[in-house]
Amino acid sequence: MSKENTKYDLIIIGAGFAGLYALYKAIKRNIKVCVFEKGSDVGGTWYWNRYPGARCDVESMQYSYQFSKKLEQEWVWTEQYATQPEILKYAKHVAKRYNLKPYIKFNNIITSSHFDKKSRVWNIKNRKGEQFKARFCIMATGCLSSTYTPLIKGASSFKGDIFHTGNWPHKKINFSNKKVGIIGTGSSAIQSIPVIADKAKHLYVFQRTPHYTVPARNRSLIYGNGDNSYTKREAQGFDVDLTVEEIKADYSNLRKKAKNMFSAMAFDLNKKSALEVSKLERKVEYESRWEKGGVPFIGAFIDLNTNREANDTAAEFVRNKIKQTVKDPQIAKKLVPNYTIGCKRLAVDTNYYETYNKSNVTLVDLKDNPIKKITTKGIQTTQKEYSFDSLIYATGFDAMTGALMNIDIRGSNGIKLSKKWANGPKTFLGLAIQGFPNLFTITGPGSPSVFTNMITSIEQHVDWIFDCFDYLYTNGIELIEPSEESERDWVQHNQDIAKPHIRSSCSSWYRGSNVEGKPEIFLPYVGGFPAYVKKCEEISKSGYKGFLLTK
Ligand code: NAP
After folding, report:
1. Fewest CB within 10 angstroms: 158, 303, 410, 492, which?
2. DSSP label of 417
């Protein structure tokens, strides 16, 4: 086995959108760089999440890179919400256009990354036993890339096909004439259930907690396809109700607007409180957003994320929509969530609730009827056994920390990251970790990441890191890591602002509560993209205050 031991200036782990952009920047700066990628191609989350119906719930005109004006202009998105294959095609296009692939080692799983204090380098090993060295290490391992499969008694006895939405096979799976069981009703399930139900002989949905979802009202963006394409819509005068041509004529304006928003996505946020308007005005606002579709529903009023009473007006509106859509009142009752809307990530769907009107779909409410075990034929609940040919886990991810903790990362005193994070992740800005010099995490825990348009957050992180590299090179600084104090304060600040937030008011992967044994601590930064960027800029402008710099 070859022990390559090549020394790089920079090693990047992951070739998703974060790794690709970091690589692009490194090549531009003539940095000796190498990317390691577990998959056989680029795309990260969009490489793995190939389940039926997978698409992005951020508008495609916004869910794209903005570092290149040419790229922005030349790429053509065909739908308002792009499908997984289209986003993957875009990632491949970027890799080809900027000749990134020669720098990427595919099918390469990194198992360890240890910092050697004496030589001041990271020693990185892959599963094949090959070793590499680098001065800097960027973890571009993704927030939702380590799948979570709950341990259910008897799981290995199931004789049919088993799938996980987050690690879907690369061949076409045909569910025609098959009976299918799916565990979970989060965003991935909400997208796949209607598509699978269209084909399957029967679909059993095993629901532990009902999820809120709003209609996407997806549409074609190609001229001549569909009603609204390339035609300015009259509706509501929303800021981003522009045609593709109009957006492309002034893309930077849309991007600027987005960066001023909490979520780094441009949409019309109503500045009024839900409680200051009449019942009728509230209903009109909710109805128009429901008709328009997508996550901007939650922007109907300014306080839906901060005030429970206000939040309940939106939640009640959606609960009524579910009851109106689902014909069987008993089924509708089971689908109605009783917690705050937007606490778990608001899902966006096409025909989700309508699917429960189909005769080939059965909703199994695990609250009344919990799973006892998985059997050779299907799932045994306390009430009966459900038999099927294929079992799908739509059970989500060990979010934000899983992919990092899966690698044996050790810092300057040999301290293991998994040990340091045993009671929850500790980072400064979600970008760097005390005791782990010259290592950066892109969209790590403690950054806005999953609350934002991910590509915008990725670009902001990568730009910040490369500006930092420039500063280090110019000033002859060899090592950078956060001080203990700045890291402690940032972690505390994160928890302080998360506590009163609606997103803390239920159990979710944001809090790590979906994974058995994972410490419950709020993972992303909930202060919004603009406040976060301001903080990052203050730090870089101050000569990296809060970091320890060693010559
Ligand atoms: P998720 O939101 O964590 O949902 C997992 C589902 O599995 C939940 O319904 C959960 O129930 C259920 N579950 C977990 N363990 C279970 C068990 N032991 N027994 C029964 N049910 C169990 O995961 P996801 O749907 O994959 O979505 C994760 C995130 O990925 C999303 O929030 C979103 O950020 C992202 N995503 C985005 C898109 C998009 O852009 N359109 C699409 C898919 C995913 P409980 O609620 O009771 O825990």
Report:
1. 492
2. H
What pLDDT, on a 0 to 100 scale, did the predictor assign at position 245? Answer: 86
Single-letter residue type at 4: E
Residue 69 buriedness (CB in 10 A; 0-12 / 13-18 / 19+): exposed
Chain center to CA of 103: 25
Residue 352 is encoded by which pair of tokens?
A: 């989700």
Residue 525 domain flag: yes
Q: How far apart are CA 236 and CA 292, in angstroms?
A: 9
- Of 56, 208, 391, 393, best ligand 1 pocket probe by most atoms within 8 Å of the beta carbon: 208
First to last CA, the chain: 37
Residues 257 and 380 in one domain: yes
Q: Could you give the CA distance from residue 514 to residue 414 in angstroms, rounded to a whole number?
A: 30
Tokens of 216: 């996407």
pLDDT digits (tens, 9 = 90+) for 519-538: 999 999 999 999 999 999 99
C-beta of residue 449 within 8 angstroms of C-beta of residue 522: no
Task: Give, using CA atoms, the residue closest to atom 33 of ligand 1.
Answer: 187
Q: Are residues 185 and 308 in the same domain?
A: yes
Inside any domain, residue 332: yes
pLDDT at position 202 is 98
Q: Beta strand pairing status for 439-441 and 121-126?
A: unpaired
Contact 218, 293 (CB under 8 A): yes
Residues spanned by the domain of 408: 5-42+100-146+398-543
Same domain, yes or no: 275 and 418: no
Name the residue with the closest Cα to ligand 1, atom 12: 184
Structure tokens at 131: 């070793």
Q: Are residues 496 and 446 in the same domain?
A: yes
Residues 296, 263 share a domain: yes
The pLDDT assigned to 232 comes to 41
Choosing from 393, 427, 449, the residue where a domain stops is 393
Write down the pLDDT at residue 73: 94
Residues in the chain where the model's pLDDT stays below 70: 1-5, 223-241
Identify whether residues 410 and 283 lie together within a single domain: no
Looking at the 3D structure of the chain, how many domains does it have?
A: 2
Tokens representing 222 are 């190609």
Measured distance CA(284)–CA(457) in Å, rounded? 33
Query: Is 260 found in the same domain as 175?
Result: yes
Model pLDDT, residue 221: 84
Distance 369 CA to ligand 1 centre (A): 20
Residues comprising the chain, all counted: 551
Contact predicate 134/124, CB 8 Å: yes
Examine the fold and report which residue of 393, 418, 437 is the final residue of a domain before the chain moves on: 393
- Reduce the DSSP state of residue 370 to 3 states and report it: coil
305 within domain boundaries: yes
Residue 475 sits in a domain whose CATH number is 3.50.50.60
In this structure, the answer to whether residues 206 and 324 fall within a common structural domain is: yes
Residues 6+ apart with CB under 8 A from 55: 79, 81, 82, 83, 84, 87, 191, 218
Task: List the structure tokens of 372.
Answer: 């006892």
* φ and ψ of 397, to 5 deg: -135, 155
165 touches ligand 1 (CB under 6 Å): yes
CA gyration radius for the chain? 24
